[in-house]
Amino acid sequence: MINDYKIAVIGCGNLGLSIVHGLLADKNVKAENITATRRNVQALKHLADAGVTTTSDNLEAIKSAELIVLGLKPYKIMDVLKDLAPHFDSSKHILVSLATGVHIADIQRIVGEDIPVYRAMPNTAADVETSMTCVCGNKDSARDLQVVLDCFSAVGDTIVIDESLMDSATVLGACGIAYVLRFIRAMIQGGIEIGFDAKTASHIATQTVKGAAELLIQRNQHPEYEIDKVTTPRGCTIAGLNEMEHNGFSSALIKDEGHPTVDIKALLQQYPVLGICYGAQLACHQYGGVVAASDKREYGRAGLHVTRDDLFHSVEEASQVWMSHGDTIKNIPDEMTIIAHTDNIPVAAYKMNSEPHPFYGIQFHPE
Ligand SMILES: NC(=O)c1ccc[n+]([C@@H]2O[C@H](COP(=O)([O-])OP(=O)(O)OC[C@H]3O[C@@H](n4cnc5c(N)ncnc54)[C@H](OP(=O)(O)O)[C@@H]3O)[C@@H](O)[C@H]2O)c1
């Protein structure tokens, strides 16, 4: 379907360019169907050489386009949309905004309710057709949604999410690229310290990270399952993992200002909720409890002691569970009740009898 569509990318900077590069690499997409804009059109010369129409005239670009991808910065997008609004045609145009934090309702206030408006949160791996793109939209039209998904499928994987999760998608998927790159950089520096030249260390680190991701993607496994396979008792892998946790590796990601989050109170209005590991810590934190770096080893097997409760009705009093966390729940709020502990941690599981639905939090990994 996307091969027949005329696509305009308005504001072709880092991300817009990544998307155009990805589209150009897709054999189904013709370069002559793509128009790319920015004010400094000289910076798009390589696209023009590849057959893409390049211009600084946004109005001209949307006239011939059907799918319009807005790659502008959040502080720019409204001004550009105000200029273009009178020229949008609801029978022809589909808008997709990449702008972080700009809601569909904000865009609709300018372009009107009739225009199909979508938000997409890709990442810069679109440049190498490996983006993770989260999409949400204001219309029920399956056809429009399919066009948007087809466009971003050309540059990687896509999922449809609720708009309320778009900020979380930004942190996990878009900022996530930087977190992983910093991790790789640290691996390379470690590799150099133990004897490799930078090029070899980089080769080993990047292929290792790629391999770890492929293991999870292709086998559909939980990370701990694969970690367990490479941790021998008293071995160097478990020593390294524990050292990472003692230095706050997981907790740095969880406590980051932009940590992945969901509105648990809102979820509980609709469903009973089970929070596992980070989910249990997040709920505790949101209700005023204390989550902090653990000073005891909490990686590996642990003996769980349960209080009789509906969640554990078929679980024996002393059961073995798997723990893997650097942070731990130090204090739970008054409305929560502890329903399990281990020898190392007092809050291995808790319950909150919230209305209309209860919340259960468990720090171990039943999955
Ligand atoms: N970078 C990421 O990883 C990422 C991930 C997800 C979402 N986002 C979102 O994607 C959007 C773009 O981010 P970015 O990093 O790609 O920003 P960027 O590199 O600054 O790209 C924005 C481009 O817009 C162009 N522009 C500015 N005013 C314009 C106008 N009036 N008409 C046409 N083009 C104009 C600029 O080029 P000229 O100055 O030459 O016009 C610039 O190249 C942002 O809203 C961001 O929140 C980014």
TrEMBL record:
It comes from the Eukaryota. Its EC number is 1.5.1.2. GO terms for biological process: L-proline biosynthetic process. Residues 6-100 form the Pyrroline-5-carboxylate reductase catalytic N-terminal domain. Keywords: Amino-acid biosynthesis, NADP, Oxidoreductase, Proline biosynthesis. Gene3D superfamilies: 3.40.50.880, NAD(P)-binding Rossmann-like Domain, ProC C-terminal domain-like. GO terms for molecular function: pyrroline-5-carboxylate reductase activity. It holds the Pfam family F420_oxidored. Residues 257-367 form the Glutamine amidotransferase domain. Pathway: Amino-acid biosynthesis; L-proline biosynthesis; L-proline from L-glutamate 5-semialdehyde: step 1/1. Residues 163-255 form the Pyrroline-5-carboxylate reductase dimerisation domain. Homodecamer; composed of 5 homodimers. Oxidoreductase that catalyzes the last step in proline biosynthesis, which corresponds to the reduction of pyrroline-5-carboxylate (P5C) to L-proline using NAD(P)H. Proline is synthesized from either glutamate or ornithine; both are converted to P5C, and then to proline via pyrroline-5-carboxylate reductases (PYCRs). PYCR3 is exclusively linked to the biosynthesis of proline from ornithine. Belongs to the pyrroline-5-carboxylate reductase family. This is Pyrroline-5-carboxylate reductase 3. It comes from Cyprideis torosa.
